[in-house]
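#struct-help
A.M.: can someone run this one for me? Single chain, 255 residues.
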Amino acid sequence: MVGQSKGGETGWRIIVVDDEEALRETVAEYLAGQGFRVRSAASGRDLDTLLAAEPADLILMDVHMPGEDGLTLARRIRSAAATPIIMLTAADDIVDRVAGLEVGADDYVVKPFDLRELKARIRAVLRRYTAVPPTAPEPPPANGAAPAGADLVSCGVVFLDMEAHCLVRRDGTRDMLTAMEFDLLRVFLQNPNRVLTRDRLLDLAHDRDNEPFDRSIDVRVTRLRKKIEADPAKPQAIKTVRGVGYLFVPGPRGT
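D.P.: on it. Structure tokens below:
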């Protein structure tokens, strides 16, 4: 998980990945001047080398790069770790934005961007991540109740650890959530058995200043269903209300 340094919001370890040298150096220099610890990479191979030397608290990554592109890199990183990822996308390419969210990115920034906006988005994503997850709890009892003393909330066939921002399965194993996934699931848990429109979900689970789009909610719901439903094709916890939005039904489902 992400670990915050003693310097407060600054001091976070960030890697900027972009094959455009001028942009990469400009962003790295600016963020370093804001107190972040910045390294830069021109390719997926360079990124792997940097991560092997020291983990990152956040990766800022361009979508379109020669060789292994940003989407492929993000998918590979997300399969192994919960490191926050912000994608850099073209101004007119909504397909990139949707694809980035589908592979597990936490946010996107549209080129060309203002460096102050970039800093704000980086800090917003980092603030949504917790510091260090607690030790994995004992497996929940078969009746679906959370173990005593654990801050676990039932959702679908798993439990949400509110402190660690991750899902806990019945065998005690954990499934990490991105910041966006956690925010959306938290909103559903806070509004059980209520139909929420996409606009309302965007208001409650995302910063409107980040210019989210309606499809981002659908993408996140799809990802959450794969993690909390017994059968994502026949969801019982997060139900679709056609033409309106979504309905969250609390309580354990299935076995």
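A.M.: thanks! Residues 214-228 form the longest helix (15 residues).
D.P.: also worth noting: The CA atoms of residues 26 and 127 lie 24 Å apart.
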